[in-house]
Design brief:
Structural class: alpha+beta
Helix content: 40-55%
Length: 148
């Protein structure tokens, strides 16, 4: 039997970056309301910087450690990073799969969570990624079925 493979190239997501930065800005505003002193201003600035860094790495895919592609073969997942590094990872058993988003928690070699939104991949690849995240295996689909 030929092993089934799937490669999902990821694109930057401006809506996700906007949401990440907006939520960090809201948290910074909450800190300023509760702690108006210098310490509150410093913490709010740190939260804003953290939001910008998270959006840069996770949503805009600009960091050298950003995930640029997911390579799936059977139940295995490998990541292609922006710096060209290729690594096989071990995922946690629990994953979140929704209509607009897939969350893949990585256990090894580095603990992190990969968040893929619907606008980061082509529609048919995102659908297949969602199925794989739920069931742990790729489906065999005829080319005519994909076009339907």
């Amino acid at each position: 039997m030929i092993p089934r493979r799937l490669r999902v190239e990821l694109a930057p997501s401006v809506p996700l970056a906007t949401a990440v930065i907006g939520l960090h800005a809201a948290a910074a505003l909450c800190v300023l309301l509760v702690m108006p002193a210098l310490a509150g201003v410093a913490l709010a600035a740190a939260l804003g910087a953290l939001g910008a860094m998270a959006a840069w790495r996770g949503a805009l895919l600009r960091s050298p450690l950003s995930v640029r592609a997911l390579e799936i073969e059977g139940p295995k997942l490998a990541l292609q990073l922006a710096n060209g590094e290729h690594m096989e990872v071990e995922l946690a058993a629990r994953r979140y799969v929704g209509r607009l988003m897939v969350s893949l928690p990585v256990l090894r070699p580095v603990r992190r969570t990969i968040l893929v939104t619907a606008d980061m991949a082509e529609a048919d690849l995102f659908r297949r990624l969602r199925i794989w995240a739920l069931w742990g295996k790729l489906t065999a689909v005829a080319p005519k079925q994909l076009a339907a």
